[in-house]
Amino acid sequence: MKSSGAVQIRDLWVDLREFHLREIDLDIAAGEYFVVLGPTGAGKTGLLETIAGLYQPQRGRVLLDGEEITHLRPERRGIGFVYQAYALFPHLNVAENIAFGLNIQRPSGLGKLIRRKSAQENEVDIAEQVDEVSRMLAIDHLLHRSPKTLSGGEQQRVALARALVIKPRVLLLDEPLSALDPETRESLQRELARVHRQLGTTTLHVTHDFEEAVALGDRIAVVNQGRIVQVGTPEDIFRRPASEFVARFVGVRNIFAGAIAEETDENGTGAKTFIFEASKTVEDQALKMAVVTDLTGAVQASIRPEDIILSREPIHSSARNCFRGHVMEIADRGTLIYVTVNAPPDFTCVITRRSREEMRLREGAAVHLAFKASAVHIF
Amino acid sequence: MKSSGAVQIRDLWVDLREFHLREIDLDIAAGEYFVVLGPTGAGKTGLLETIAGLYQPQRGRVLLDGEEITHLRPERRGIGFVYQAYALFPHLNVAENIAFGLNIQRPSGLGKLIRRKSAQENEVDIAEQVDEVSRMLAIDHLLHRSPKTLSGGEQQRVALARALVIKPRVLLLDEPLSALDPETRESLQRELARVHRQLGTTTLHVTHDFEEAVALGDRIAVVNQGRIVQVGTPEDIFRRPASEFVARFVGVRNIFAGAIAEETDENGTGAKTFIFEASKTVEDQALKMAVVTDLTGAVQASIRPEDIILSREPIHSSARNCFRGHVMEIADRGTLIYVTVNAPPDFTCVITRRSREEMRLREGAAVHLAFKASAVHIF
Amino acid sequence: MRKLFTNRMYVLFALLGALLIFFVAWPLLRTVTSSDPTIIWETLLEAEVRSAILLTLYSSALATVVAFFFGVPLAYLLARADFPGKRLIEGIVDVPIVVPHSAAGIALLMVFGRRSLLGRAFGLIGLKFVSAAPGIVIAMLFVSLSFLVDSAREGFEAVNPRLERVARTLGASPWQTFWRVSFPLAWRSILSGMILMWARGLSEFGAVVILAYHPMIAPVLLYERFESYGLDYARPVATLIILICLMTFVALRLIAQEDRA
Amino acid sequence: MRKLFTNRMYVLFALLGALLIFFVAWPLLRTVTSSDPTIIWETLLEAEVRSAILLTLYSSALATVVAFFFGVPLAYLLARADFPGKRLIEGIVDVPIVVPHSAAGIALLMVFGRRSLLGRAFGLIGLKFVSAAPGIVIAMLFVSLSFLVDSAREGFEAVNPRLERVARTLGASPWQTFWRVSFPLAWRSILSGMILMWARGLSEFGAVVILAYHPMIAPVLLYERFESYGLDYARPVATLIILICLMTFVALRLIAQEDRA
Predict the structure, then answer these.
(1) What is the pLDDT of residues D71-106, one digit of tens each?
(2) Handedness of CA A181, A183, A184, A189 (dihedral sign)
(3) Are D71 and D163 members of one domain?
(4) How far is D137 from chain C (nearest CA, A)?
(5) Of C95, C138, C156, D44, most Cβ neighbours within 10 A?
(6) What's the structural domain count of chain D?
(7) Is the pLDDT of residue A284 over 50?
(8) DSSP bridge pairs for B227
(9) Is the CA virtual torsion A311, A317, A320, A322 positive or negative?
(10) Which of D170, D177, D179, D259 to probe the A interface (max A CBs under 10 A)?
């Protein structure tokens, strides 16, 4: 049941009332799980629909295994599509929904009458394929139900089965988890990973949820306002966002403007220092931190909240950057607690509920911050 | 501008097509920020609408400052209402929306003609009040805009201003943050807390989001299927859920069935031990853990994931419960990472991305777990 | 969507649909274009034609006003309230659309006729229906009120009930809530229902011809001329009537269009 | 909601609305109940009445079938496609509702009459419209096709376009997508549009009376009897027609109701 194709997109431009895509270039390897991440309204659904052939691009080409399919009709592409809101056929039961693509490919009408026997064999064959895919997705007990009697998670499994049963070369998932409640989302997310491991179908998954992208994607492309702004592994995107937009979108809270200065320490080895722009007014006391970077000049620096160690006592550790400050705000998020510390620049750190209790942290308390030079991302 | 009333609800029953409320008893103090937490469809909106007088209960009473208002018409109650989807009047601009309640109370028609001068004064007065509340909510630059041109967060601020300007004795908020994107949600959540601090209006806030409830509520009532299942401070609910439903709803992952046994240690002091039900089959090796409780017999135990310390090395600490196990699954959620460890019972722990890297945690790795006896909640 | 178009099914559908459009548009265009403008002008100057047209416009407007007072409250109830027999009431509102208008005329004649109870009661205050303007109004009201009630009901249904509930919590009585929230928000639908009803009233023939042949409204005049003098004499009147109807119809469309925007 | 009811505004609205309902229901009830069942039975046995009723049912059914073939494709295009002039086409579809039916009859006579181009062309293949059954079908088609097209268009609009797109990605051609997805899902709306159109065709009088007075359809027969013999002779025919229309109407409602459930 292995079947997967490589997708290449070359300089794609699409203009439609609801969205615009600009200069899209993507290379998705056969068998890859590729996630397109971006805010709502960034044109992500439109990108998938263009790849499926439901929209024609103004410019550019779409290639599947090196073969141009830009102007091929959607029904000839062999691309599976799953929409956010399931889009099951309400007049068909679950089994008929799943078998839809197989029934279409079967000779119908006159052809059916002439080759009556082969048509019967065909039907048995279809039933077997429906059975197989529905067992894989654990929906074989629902086959005779009507879609509208199913829960959201079950409906999405049926939609997935319907797309998979035609053995698509590429599977397009348009925010497949967004309409589900958190618990179902988590279980279906695991299912998606398992199905991809099992079948190895090239998958293009679109989402606005960063955690989902990190959990599933081999690689991630971040899109904003119809353009791709960064492509990389989850680690790349998370650690080394290419722009402030990406940094904010993936949840980096500490973003500072400043400049890089080179210093030579007592041992004679050169080290780079980041000078906070905000501190420039206090000339003699320019606030700075040690960083690791190749960049120079005016840059931006970011530190992930969980990379900052927070303590009531001064910290003596290998961490190169230590600051002292006061707790400005404590934001309780249940399991996690976000603490804003004014050093003077405001750093946001994240601690667990337990740590908070152990430290007896209150607003106004004096605290120490520490983080490694390598934890600072310069861009 | 202080005005707040105490709300008492006595044995309230409401039966409607969409929801049912059963035996609701609540005491909300004047000036309290009270959160009603429960899953979608638990009848939370219906509870608010009943308090506002939009539905009549089948049974029971609603009291405001000790005075019965069960059968008072909604327009006489002085209760402000904010719906999840804003419900702004689309035919009025922002200023007119906010002034709606004030204009209603103004003499109209004939009364207006007779007392022309006082009506003019009245209008100036209304404009001042609208100004004041819109400055407080930072929407004074939007007063001449039409609601449909505003963002979700701005619309919700207008809805809040409209409810506050009539100086309600009680403010009812029906999932006021659920329709917003995460960033706006956070900022409006802070705003709600600030406004409550500033005005001290008794607030009844309904939500399905536990983090929101913890961040805002002085006290929380958890409802399920139309009944109140627990009332308490956020800490109570979080640490000492009264039932498995509450525990699961507030995100406790480690819930175990078992029984309490009393043991006497070498010093002669009695200690309570929890014996896991799952381990009963392995007679000689009954898995147990130290707990602090007054209960005996068959109970359930829960441990919050963040209360478990995870380590590659054996842990020597004051924590009374230590287990050894293997990593079964690592679920990456961006900032947080959930690790399932089989000890044999499956414990779920939460660690930060940084800890994971430092520990070089992989599936299958041997790890040690430790947690305090007091971290185990028995119910 | 535009590109989905370039398939053969759409071309076939467009051909079939075009035939139907042509079938509607051609007779109307043909009638309007084949009449000499000077003859139409002369026709318009005839006292009989003018008074028939004015009577038609006026009677239909009166029927619409009556329907507004009774129909808008009914529409609001149908949109908001839940009561036993609601389905039946909804059915009764729509019945006039399917009852043949000549049969409707007979039914009205039985109730409002000279010898009927109501006819005699109204006769005492000097109001007679048969062969009189009030009869025309009654007939128009009967056959066209469904349009106003249905349109107003859709308008009220489109108003989020939560807006009304919020208004109540802000201190508005049910009456204030209706006038300050529900009615203004449903107003466009009500207005377009009124125009549609008025246009439908203008075009009524079957019920009026039975209840009040005289005084003559325009459609009856047209029929009279056709019967007495033939097609060529009826044509200018037909052209005039079609033009008036098309104009009101365009106005209706423009209002509905603004509504969407 | 139920309790919101107990306010004075709702009581006032209910009173006003009840008057309107009464105005519609009473004449119909009165007509139906005041006729002696034996007379109605005798009327039904008259060959002239029977053939008029059958001709009415049959002609309207034929008009509906014609409108199905041309109108459903048109409705699909209006629901799915975006093209210049779409507003105009939508307007033309609805024009017959507002054109007075006697004027519509004149317009059709001008295009399909004996001396007209089309009339002569069809005459060559032995099809004549004036004073003939085809004329009745044409007249009914003209005045009632709007109902079918509008209802079918609403049906297609309610079908999520994503269902069609998914079908395409599953290998269905546009044609297969239409027959396996769009049409079955819109079928109830189409069916209820067909029944409404048929009922509306049954009730047509004005256009038919001009285009084809003979052979007589039921509403024309009713008018003829009223003109020639007076109310008492027309009443049994009116009762029969009203009963038939009410029955089809109830069927229509039941289908629409199932649709909602």
Answers:
(1) 999 999 999 888 888 888 988 998 888 888 889 999
(2) positive
(3) yes
(4) 13
(5) C138
(6) 2
(7) no
(8) B224
(9) positive
(10) D170
